[in-house]
Amino acid sequence: MVSVFRGFVVVVPLLCSIAAIVLSALAIAGQTKAAQPVKDIYMLQINLTEATSTFSSLTSGSVNLESYGIGEIYSFGMWGYCKGDSQDGKYNVTYCSKPKSMYVFDPVSLFEDELNVSVTLPDKVKDYITVSKVVSKLIFITGLIGACSAVLTGVFTIVSFKSHMVSCIAMLFGIISFVALALCAAASTAMFSIFEKYFNDEASTYGITASLGDKHFYAFIWAATAAALIACILNFFAICCGSTRSRGGEPKMGYHERGYSSDYKHGSDSD
After folding, report:
1. Cβ atoms of 97 and 80 closer than 8 Å
2. What are the tens digits of pLDDT across the range 56-89?
3. Which of 3, 16, 157, 226 has the greatest CB tally within 10 Å of its CB?
4. A Gene Ontology CC term for this entry (predicted)?
């Protein structure tokens, strides 16, 4: 069998890789459908509950929200958005967009499409949305790379019990997974935290607010990043630590009685 320490430096990073896979998958799956738990996983939520009955001050004409089917709350994920209303203080999702790869966060275009009018927001908000279009793609790409690399890290970790070289390969994929997930987590946290502040400073006068919500997405993506880091570190130790050689075929080192003892006895009798 392989050594106990070898088992430790392989099993623990394997468990961490599995955790990174599950946690990153949950974060990535947010807002793909109106069902638990993914409907409550989003990067940003825009609340229109306190808005006036029209977007008159924001649009080129008077528009009634209800007549156009505008939701009270919009939440945005990596694949699209969901909308709904607030019932007893809880977010009730009524619709989710069809998942789209490389989804770009652009609430202005979304509202313009639903209202069929031109929406005018403060320049700071518009400038930040322009930047967010680029960062949204970065978040999507790094999130997928991180999750896929975590899968490969787990696969190579499984087969690394008897090979230090395979542990090296697992560590390399672990590095890719950690770096990608860290970039995804940092970019999403920074972008939407800044957008939350800018949006609330500029648009709150219209009764429209932005919030990171319960921050389930950020909890999952940062936890996945931490798990990927631990898996990477332990796979590094697994490269040089722990015996991978089986002792099953080695000869036993026992005591053997010396054969000359009986000859010596016979020789003594002849005397």
Report:
1. yes
2. 555 555 555 656 667 888 999 999 999 988 777 7
3. 157
4. cell cortex of cell tip
